[in-house]
Amino acid sequence: MASDANSNPNELSAASNGSPLQRCGRCLKAHYCSTECQRADWQNHKRSCKKSDYTPPEGMSSAGGFLDTMFGGSNLDKLTKRECYIQLIDSYRMRVEDDYKYGADNHGLYAGEDPRPEFAHFLDLAEKRNGLLPQWWNKESKTACEAMGADGSKENWADLSCAVEKHDIQDHYKDNMMPMKLRLLAEKVYRKRVAGGL
């Protein structure tokens, strides 16, 4: 079902299956119950579809710009060493969780493996990403970050042998956007999204 800009979006809040309506990515005005509906309506809609005048805030004009704003190195630079290590560990742990949950890709902890070698590889990749890690990062930093992840004491939030889920991250950081920030950081390290997509 297609809806134009004159329709009341509150009346069209969900598709027949109960999921929210999707919006045309170009004009941001037409609403559809599915991608298939949007494709079927394209011949009619393309006559009135004009690029939206909406301009995202500075630094968020593209996914790359958003990533660069969040994790171009400058934000990790603003953290203490301990906070930086924890966010790198949590970014890795969140990625392992997402690969398991969305990509049916069991590795590390979810495959019953020691997660430390895989996390060391994650840090190796992060070191190759120009400007991602803080300027103070060095071999000793990597060793300290790996040691923090290997610390299995009860007091250590960043224990690599403990799985984390989205709600755990939100509760720990008191930030509902933190799971997404950590996912974006992992995408920048791996240079790819989760296999199943998010």
Structural class: mainly alpha
Secondary structure: number of strands: 3
End-to-end distance: 25 Å
The percent range for strand residues is under 5%
Biggest sheet features: 3 strands, antiparallel
Helix content: 40-55%
The strands making up the biggest β-sheet line up spatially as 1-3-2
3D structure, described in words:
- With 198 residues, the chain is mainly alpha-helical.
- The chain has helices at 35-45, 63-71, 74-77, 81-103, 115-128, 139-150, 166-173, 178-190; strands at residues 2-3, 22-23, 31-32.
- Strand 2 (22-23) and strand 3 form a beta hairpin.
- Helix 4 packs across helix 6 (139-150) and helix 5 (115-128) runs antiparallel to helix 6.
- The two termini are 25 Å apart.
- Mean pLDDT is 79; it is low at 5-13 and 56-74.
Outline of this structure?
With 198 residues, the chain is mainly alpha-helical.
Key terms for this structure?
3% strand; three-stranded antiparallel beta sheet; 47% helix; mainly alpha; 198 residues; 3 strands; elongated
